[in-house]
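hey so i finally got around to running the thing on that chain from the lab meeting. sorry it took forever, my laptop kept dying and i had to restart like 3 times. anyway pasting the input first so we r on the same page abt which one it is
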Amino acid sequence: MTRPTPRESITLMTGYHSPQIDVDVRLNTNESPEPPPGGFAEAVAEQVLAIDWNRYPDRSATKLRARIGANYGLPGEQVFVANGSNEVLQTLLLTFAGPGRTSAVFEPTYALHSHLSRVTGTTLVEGERANDFSIDLAEVERVMIEHRPDVLFLCSPNNPTGIVDAPDTIRAVLDMVRATGGLLCVDEAYGQFSDFSAVDLLGDDTPLVVSRTYSKTWAMAAVRLGYLLAPDWIVTELEKVVLPYHLDAMTQVAGTVALDHQDAMTARVARLVEERGRLMARLADLPLDVWPSGANFILIRPTCRDGNAVWQGLVDRSVLVRNCATWPRLDGCLRITIGTPEEDDRLLDALTEVLT
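ok and heres what got predicted. didnt touch it at all, straight out
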């Protein structure tokens, strides 16, 4: 029997994976080191008991979208929700990009923007960031003039470098995108760790969308819930593309209940920012290049040993961080998720042993 074959572009892909290894300290996937606050799980369980299991969930996720929108002073019609920000981004590309259209990213940046572009048959254009990994506006202008991308991605804070784009930079990129009839997507998966959000730039005639996730600051990676804020006419187009009843009832319940714990989320973010500062100060005393971060992770590069050897040395000591060596321009780099103080101390002890 002749086996069916996938599209040629799919055959050439390696997929998007993050190694899962059994270790004591996992600091490789930017999860929250703390669970949701007390009472959250109980409130979710109580509402789950009231679900009509024989009925489809609310196709429009009306209550959840309204609650998310209210957090930003927006109506629910300007909120699109899906199974993690990954599905949000995939739906965006299926709607506004795809075969015969182009997307643009600026490396190094979040690998899934490129991966999803390829999966959706979108032609991908890769620009370069500046030497300090900030956005180079001259490079953006070059990409816009030469390729006129239909969708341009910015990630702020940027994964895996932690760099936060300045408000003037995002405004300048938005002006370029507007001039060419494209769409700007600002991925703010780590947005709550930053002082500025592109949400402030949203407008009915502005070709801008902002994506966020519950996985990081809301400590809900297990739920797989993401959302996008945009003009309502963009949300209307996205809803034509996403599968019917794609967001199950339990996810909608969990996402809504979480919003009753806004203060706990804000306090958790503040603790992580404080711990990030402590960890960065300790890392500065080691033979490492350390990049400034506005997220819940820190990018480092060992200066005295090969990065792959350092990564393996940490694994041997039951500490797992993300090896970024295969990402563009990140040879030898490791990304460290901010953990609990106890986890970070384990990391520091292990890293000190490996580097000395």
